[in-house]
């Protein structure tokens, strides 16, 4: 019995000492002495520094974001790939509005051409104005193309009798118009070569830059972007074999 009581007393003493030690540790951490104040100041400084670094990271633009913005701005410039000795004349004649370089970029190709005062005869030809049986507007607006677009002066060089005969023959007119259309979009750097047209015949494009030749027609201004096509305005009307007047 005495042995058990002594053991119990010893355990109670050890427990009391442990509780006193824990209480002392708790009081030291929460005291207002210089040691406690120093810890608080360090914590506040670290929090402030972290906040400033976080704000700096949020306010800065990552390199990838900057490149994407630059690339997008380059793609949005419709005059970036223009080529041709008469592009400046085109810009002077149509400096703004739907028929300008910037304006044409907003519409599909048949619609864009209809707004360009240099392409009125071509517009009449593809929209049923020359022959009501020949209306290619939906076709041209419905896919991606490279369009070789004779300017009005090119049609004016065709004898009136021949032009009237072409307009009265819907099959011949369709053959000529679709000979000016190549599936897919091609930039000035990749357009040289032989290309099968929507007509089925092959058009030959030679040279580079301002010296590009489209069969026997020269370049007026090319690389003009529309919503679905790349346009090359040319100074002659191309005739596929068998339709030459």
UniProtKB/TrEMBL annotation:
Residues annotated as signal peptide = 1-26
Domain FAS1, residue spans: 106-238
Q: Where is the composition biased (Gly residues)?
A: 26-41
Domain of life per record: Bacteria
Checking Pfam families in the record gives: Fasciclin
Q: Which residues form a coiled coil?
A: none
Region feature (Disordered):
26-81
Q: Which keywords describe this protein according to UniProt?
A: Signal
UniProt biased composition (Low complexity): 45-67
| SUPFAM superfamilies per the UniProt record, alphabetical | FAS1 domain (SSF82153)
Q: PANTHER family under this entry?
A: FI19380P1, PERIOSTIN-RELATED
Q: What is this protein called?
A: FAS1 domain-containing protein
């Amino acid at each position: 019995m005495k042995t058990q009581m002594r053991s119990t007393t010893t355990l109670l003493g050890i427990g009391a000492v442990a509780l006193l030690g824990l209480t002392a540790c708790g009081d030291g951490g929460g005291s207002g002495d210089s040691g406690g104040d120093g810890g608080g100041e360090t914590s506040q400084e670290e929090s402030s520094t972290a906040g400033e670094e976080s704000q700096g990271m949020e306010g800065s633009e990552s390199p990838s974001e900057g490149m994407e913005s630059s690339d997008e701005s380059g793609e949005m410039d419709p005059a970036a790939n223009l080529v041709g000795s008469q592009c400046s004349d085109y810009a002077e004649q149509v400096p703004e509005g739907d028929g300008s370089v910037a304006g044409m970029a907003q519409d599909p190709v048949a619609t864009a051409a209809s707004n360009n005062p240099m392409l009125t005869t071509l517009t009449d030809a593809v929209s049923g104005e020359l022959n009501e049986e020949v209306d290619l507007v939906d076709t041209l607006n419905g896919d991606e193309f490279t369009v070789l677009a004779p300017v009005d002066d090119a049609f004016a060089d065709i004898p009136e009798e021949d032009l009237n005969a072409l307009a009265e023959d819907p099959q011949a007119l369709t053959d000529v118009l679709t000979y000016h259309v190549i599936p897919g979009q091609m930039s000035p750097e990749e357009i040289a070569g032989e290309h099968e047209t929507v007509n089925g015949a092959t058009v030959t494009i030679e040279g580079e830059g301002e010296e590009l030749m489209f069969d026997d027609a020269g370049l007026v201004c090319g690389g003009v972007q529309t919503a679905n096509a790349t346009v090359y305005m040319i100074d002659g009307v191309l005739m596929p074999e068998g339709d030459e007047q």
